[in-house]
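Case study 2.
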Amino acid sequence: MDPKSIALHLIGEDLKYHQMVAQCAPVEIHIEFFPDFATAVKNLLGQADQDDSWEDRYVLALQKGERLMWGDTEGIRAVAEEVLAALQE
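Prediction:
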């Protein structure tokens, strides 16, 4: 698998992680841990030397995933592709 495909996969996993945390919070299940998907994606895209504004763009782009329904695999893929495109601009 090429680095861009791995980055796309990790973005999708990050979207699913955020969905899981958001869905568990209302029933007071707190399972948060803090995987550093952003740094992994940044490195895979060859942008390791970017400043903190890159991570800010990543976090803002991930917010597009808030509109997805739980388990929407196709939607997650589409949003992950949007996030990836935004990070490559």
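The two ends are 22 Å apart (CA to CA).
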